[in-house]
Structures are given as structure tokens and as C-alpha cells.
Amino acid sequence: MSFDLYQVDAFTDRAFGGNPAAVCLLPAPRPDEWMQSVAREMNLSETAFLHPSVDPAKPGYALRWFTPAVEVELCGHATLASAHVLWESRRLAPGETARFHTLSGLLTAENRGTDIEMDFPAKSVDEVPPPAGLLEAFGGVTPRFVGKSRFDYLLELEAEEMIVAAAPDAAALKALPVRGIIITARGESTDAARGPYDFVSRFFAPGVGVYEDPVTGSAHCSLGPYWAKRLGKNRFLAYQASARGGTLRVEVEGDRVKLGGRAVTVTCGKLLA
Known about the structure:
The protein is of the alpha+beta class. The chain has helices spanning 32-42, 76-88, 134-137, 160-165, 170-174, 220-231; strands at residues 3-10, 19-25, 46-52, 61-66, 71-72, 98-102, 105-111, 116-121, 126-127, 145-148, 152-156, 180-186, 190-191, 195-196, 199-205, 210-213, 235-240, 246-253, 256-261, 263-271.
């Protein structure tokens, strides 16, 4: 038996930018252990597995995401990659909504031409005292804000240059009982085609097997509501300042966040195992 397998760079309009995700198209569910083994073999921050829903009451696709180490509850870039593959392979018509049934409920994506727009749940961030080891992992920084969402810690730093220069201690971050750590600051740079960035960020998740995730859609489910309060608006152009880099459109609508971005297929083939 073989399965169609794609590698897609998400939240970018060029190959080798953004965040690479593997997308494995299945005819039916497969065992968890097998999916985890495939994700470990692919060795990307996430591998997405999707198959047509087997529940008539839930039309669309069942979608799950695995890092090389664990299954995760929410992943933006691999969802973007999955929707991109469905349209590119003509499994969905260009104007058809992609519907994904996931551990985070129903997620949808719309083909907006050059961009794909996803509808995700917002994740609130509550201010908390920094836990032991968090600030020390970043060299003893003094953040403007420390907060925590259901999944992650969030630190706002003073300047974009501090985000770009950060080189945190992986072992210290891995000891924290969260999925990952978001660092963010007001944007100071500009996209040549789209204008100034409202905020920038980076995301570190050694606890789930990913030291730094290049572009993290799910982190923007927290960043969007956070910056909406800070800046008094609900639409943003955001940049994740990893080595690969990626651009996102973010719009906060009540308890939902719309995430927009582009994707490029880099490889496609067959999984034979």
C-alpha cells in the first residue's frame, strides 16, 4: 500500500521559506503509532494526516498533526499546507471550503486566490508571574509582559531587535510544563509589498520536540487577541522572525481568529511504508 505525500512550505510565497510541513493523504484512518513513526521519519515540526471523514454528520476531512515526538492539538501551518494540497490536487474545487475535523473542533479554510484564509479558535492570554527558569532561559531579559495561554507562555519584549537576536537555552525551556514559548514585540520592519508589520514573534517548543518552529499559525491564535488589546485594532500584518521567516495576516473576530497566508509545494511523492 502507498499514500500520497507532499512537503509544503507554509506562510510564504517562495520555496524554502516559511514553515515546511508534510501532508499525508490517507483513504481511511491509520494507527497512531504508525502516524507517529511517519512524523519521526519526516523530521519536520509537523506532519499532517488527513482522510475523508467517516462520519456523515461531519462532511469534510479528519485531520491530525504530529511532531517528531508527540501529537498536538492545534497546528496552523500544517492546516494551511493541507488545504493547499487539497486545492492543488483538485480534491477540492477552487471555491469549495476546506473543512477539517480536529482535536480543536471544526477548522475551515477558504481559497482567496493568492492567500488561504483559515478560521481558528482564539486563545486568551492571562498575565502570570514568570516561572522559575523562563526569563533566565532568555539571558535574564526584563519583558514588558509575561502571560500564559492554554498552550504557551507569551513574553512581550521591548524591541524587534531583541526578538531577532534571541537564542534561548533549549534545556531550560524544555523543563517548563507548556507546549511552547512565544516571544513578541511591536513591528519595526516592513514587507516591501504589503507594508509595515504590526508585530513580530518567534516560537520555541523543545518540550514537544521542536527547538524553534519557523512559522507558527496556532501561536497567532494568542498573539492576535493579545495585540488587539495592546493596539486597539483587530487586523494585523505579522512576521515570524525565524531564520526561514514567514508572513501572516491576522484578524480577530470575537472568539475566532482568521489566519491568512500563502503556501508553496516543494516535493510530492509516495509513502511506501
